[in-house]
Amino acid sequence: MFSFTDRVAHVFWRLTDPDHPAHDAALAARYAPTIERWYERMDAIVGKALAAIGDDPETLFLVCSD
User: Fold this and answer.
1) pLDDT band, very low/low/confident/very high, at 35 (cuts 50, 70, 90)
2) Are 40 and 4 a contacting pair, CB within 8 Å?
3) Burial (0-12, 13-18, 19+ Cβ within 10 Å), 15
4) Residue 59, SS3?
5) What is the pTM of this model?
6) Share of the chain residues as helix, strand and coil, in percent rounded to the nearest 5
């Protein structure tokens, strides 16, 4: 289980949404891409797991998100 994508999104969302009441333009200029970067890392992890599974039709692989 990986929970970092959820936590990163909760912490950094305010920097991606200019209408958020806690938005800070100076911080957004530096940290707004953080969420996207972590999802790219998670995509790479999923890709490695799928590669390890291969074409085994008996293996069920689930990706779930809240």
Assistant:
1) very high
2) no
3) buried
4) coil
5) 0.78
6) 60, 0, 40
